From TrEMBL:
One Pfam match: Semialdhyde_dhC
Function: Catalyzes the NADPH-dependent formation of L-aspartate-semialdehyde (L-ASA) by the reductive dephosphorylation of L-aspartyl-4-phosphate.
Binding site for substrate: 158, 237
Record-level Gene Ontology MF annotations: aspartate-semialdehyde dehydrogenase activity; NAD binding; NADP binding; protein dimerization activity
Top enzyme category: oxidoreductase
Protein name from the UniProt record: Aspartate-semialdehyde dehydrogenase
Residue intervals of the Semialdehyde dehydrogenase NAD-binding domain: 7-122
Gene: asd
Keywords, ordered alphabetically: Amino-acid biosynthesis, Diaminopimelate biosynthesis, Lysine biosynthesis, Methionine biosynthesis, NADP, Oxidoreductase, Threonine biosynthesis
């Protein structure tokens, strides 16, 4: 950390996304003069390694944000609602990974490859979209810019990582229990996930859509500035440790040539075309794990609709679906001169 860098605080430093944020700040050589790790009082006093140092975790409090330029928050909605206004009052710009502020009219909801200009209107808080929304919008934006998408039908296959580090450990424990003819533990999840799958267990609305599915609908419309975009999603939790997958059916006003779609995806930032038709090799969660790019493939004409395209994607939920997107937002804020100069 140098004297000319930014003073950054990570709120929720001990979680799966918090520890990924630490890795990314080091990996991307983020300009830091101070890094403050904040968590609950339960974690206070513990240390986390960062660039050869052991940083002590502090319990978040009203004095935690004094002198801080940037806050990267990934500690849950209620904690963000409690503490981010305090951080803004102290002069910090906050990037929040929770759902607390995503649909607030005065809070930009940003995927840097898609709508970085929305950062120019921030009032201290910028929202990081839901993981499934980030992965989908990065993949679809190159196509949407050429010919606006009229309708999206999405089916997601979401890994245990979306529910955090404890959920990932629980799936391992469930698998071990099942293989030993024992009852699998269910604490993070309502049902066994190992050797199983279930529809996403967030609350269901009167129309029959769960909260996770409606995040994809509402957040994509906001990011694309397309309030009338027709979207329907079905979200499924699957027994994969890390990286989410999505099957997307797209409808355009006119036919969209498959060759053009492939070329656009191959050249777009944040995505990587993965297609080996001869060997039936397309994006897989195991390949997406630990990768910055969203892997996209099996792009094909929808045989049921002349103006339809089908594609498949996989992306690391903890990385691009959460921590990386937050760090990229912070980098974009600096590039656009929206954070006070150190």
């Amino acid at each position: 950390m140098g004297s000319q860098g930014y003073r950054v605080a990570i709120l929720g430093a001990t979680g799966a996304v918090g520890t990924e944020l630490l890795e990314l700040l080091a990996e991307r050589k983020f300009p830091l003069s101070e890094l403050r790790l904040l968590a609950s009082s339960r974690s206070a006093g513990q240390t986390l390694a960062f660039q050869g140092d052991n940083l002590t975790i502090q319990a978040v409090g009203h004095d935690s944000f004094a002198g801080i330029d940037l806050v990267l928050a990934s500690a849950g909605g209620s904690i963000s609602q409690n503490w981010l206004p305090v951080a803004v009052q102290a002069g910090a710009v906050c990037v929040d990974n929770s759902s607390a502020f995503r649909m607030a009219p005065d809070v930009p909801l940003v995927v840097p490859e898609v709508n970085p200009a929305d950062l120019d209107h921030h009032q201290g808080i910028i929202a990081n979209p839901n993981c499934t929304t980030i992965l989908m919008t990065v993949a679809l934006w190159p196509l949407h810019q050429v010919q606006p998408i009229q309708r999206i039908i999405a089916a997601t296959y979401q890994s245990a990582s979306g529910a955090g580090a404890r959920a990932m450990a629980e799936v391992k424990a469930q698998a071990q229990a099942i293989l030993n003819n024992k009852t699998p533990p269910t604490e993070s999840f309502p049902y066994p996930l190992a050797f199983n799958l279930f529809l996403h267990n967030t609350p269901i609305n009167a129309q029959g859509y769960c909260q996770e599915e409606m995040k994809m609908v509402n957040e994509t419309r906001k990011i694309f500035h397309a309030p009338g975009l027709r979207i329907s999603a079905t979200c499924v939790r699957v027994p994969v440790l890390r990286a989410h997958s999505e099957a997307l059916n797209l409808e355009f006003e006119q036919p969209f040539p498959v060759t053009q779609a492939r070329e656009l995806i191959a050249q777009a930032p944040g995505v990587k075309l993965v297609e080996n038709w001869e060997n039936n090799y397309f994006p897989m969660p195991i390949d997406a794990t630990g990768q910055d790019d969203v892997l996209v493939g099996r792009i094909r004409q929808d045989i049921s609709h002349p103006n339809g395209l089908e594609l498949w994607l996989c992306g690391d939920q903890i990385r691009k679906g959460a921590a990386l997107n937050a760090v990229q937002i912070a980098e974009a804020l600096i590039e656009r001169g929206l954070v006070k100069t150190p």
